[in-house]
Write a structure and sequence with these properties.
With 99 residues, the chain is an all-alpha fold. The protein is 73% helix and 0% strand. The protein contains 5 helices and no strands. It has helices spanning 2-17, 22-35, 43-51, 56-84, 94-97. α1 runs antiparallel to α2.
Length: 99
């Protein structure tokens, strides 16, 4: 929950500034916030490992792999939606891309 709140306060104003579609921006932030519970380290994994007598390292690795997979799938999903409808996520200005 705190991940979503932090991401919202940082990323939504920037997305609004660059004219991203509101549904895409809010959906991306909500999804990204939920990924925070999958990507280690987090307290839930430690508690799970202790309660179910599992290796905390293995639990972390399982979370890391799932987090990377879901992040990749979400990124591809946003990319494909923007290919179909470029108005959802306009191209960044050249000075942003090239530094």
């Amino acid at each position: 929950m705190t991940t979503a709140a932090t991401m919202e306060s940082v990323s939504l104003p920037e997305m609004e500034k660059y004219k991203y579609d509101e549904s895409l921006a809010i959906g991306s932030v909500a999804t990204g916030g939920n990924l925070g519970i999958l990507i280690p380290p987090n307290l839930e994994f430690i508690i799970y490992g202790i309660v179910y007598e599992e290796s905390v390292g293995k639990v972390f690795m399982a979370g890391k792999l799932r987090g990377i997979l879901l992040t990749s799938l979400f990124a591809v999903s946003v990319y494909l939606r923007c290919l179909v409808n470029p108005a959802l996520g306009p191209e960044a200005p050249k000075n942003i891309i090239n530094g």
